[in-house]
Amino acid sequence: MDVTEVALHKVTDEFISHTKKLGENWDLDEVTSFLVIAATLLDLKAARLVPSAEVEDEDDLALLEARDLLFARLLQYRAYKQVAALFGELEAGALRRYPRSVALEDRFNDLLPEVMIGVSPQRFAETAASVFRPKPIPTVGLDHIHNHRVGIRERAAELRVVLAENGTATFASLVVDCEHTIEIVATFLALLELYREAAIYLDQEDPLGELIVRWTGGSLEEAAAQAEQDLASTEEEEYGG
Predict the structure, then answer these.
(1) 14-26 residue pLDDT tens
(2) Based on the number of CB atoms within 10 Å of its own CB, is 192 exposed (0-12), middle (13-18) or buried (19 or more)?
(3) Which of 33, 67, 98, 238 has the lowest tally of Cβ within 10 angstroms?
(4) What pTM was computed for the model?
């Protein structure tokens, strides 16, 4: 859009007409902004029509450098004006439209499908009873928590006899009959007790390899006697429970 194509007198006439419609409610800032824009446009138009003219005032030069902003404002002004005209046309067209406020015609009443509820009164009663029936108190099951008590002294007494009879055994063979993990742990602790008493010797060739248990606690008769003494002892150490 070239500045020479702007009809400044038309813009001025429209703005004056706009301010007259506002009456005493016109805005001073709006009028001042228009005067600044109009003066700048006039200066730009004069400079464009007389290309050889030189700008003597630095303020005029700054205004010339702001021509892009002025052009943008002019385009906004024209866009707002076009949109306002479009809204006016739409409003005028809407005023010629009237809604049709009538009831459904009789010939369409029979086309409505019959409402079918596939629930009997008995089913309704059962549903209502289930809603108002007190809910059971939630409980936390403890079935998965075992309370298997294992005596370490009892397990050590059993291992004394088994190892004294066989001489050598692996840890896997000693726990093959264990049904619970706690029994395996108790077996390991019982072996540590026997090792502390120097009744067995533990050997493991490779890291994480098979653990071999060798009996070094005397004869089978001595082991059986010590086992009976352990079982008869009133001081019982238990693991678990």
Answers:
(1) 777 777 777 777 6
(2) middle
(3) 98
(4) 0.38
